[in-house]
Design brief:
With 79 residues, this protein is mainly beta. Helix content is 6%, strand content 13%. The relative contact order is 0.21.
């Protein structure tokens, strides 16, 4: 699913496990109750995405882009 565009979509209650989402575009996407586990989100765009919870310990987020205030959820996952 490399370079897939979900921009502006509602991707709710979905499960992404062991998925290659490199350079995927989640810009302005509603990700309510969506689970990301062991995904490659290298260079993914999550700017203005909402309602996500992505654990940086279980996903490759290298060079992924996020925006505030939603980016705070990345830190909350580390607690």
């Amino acid at each position: 699913m490399k370079k897939t565009s979900f921009k502006g979509s509602k991707v709710r209650e979905s499960h992404f496990t062991n998925v290659d989402l490199q350079q995927a575009d989640f810009g302005k996407t509603d990700l309510s109750s969506t689970i990301f586990h062991n995904c490659k989100l290298f260079k993914a765009n999550c700017i203005d995405a909402i309602n996500y919870f992505i654990d940086p310990k279980n996903n490759n987020l290298k060079e992924a882009k996020f925006s505030f205030p939603e980016a705070i959820s990345l830190v909350e996952a580390l607690e």
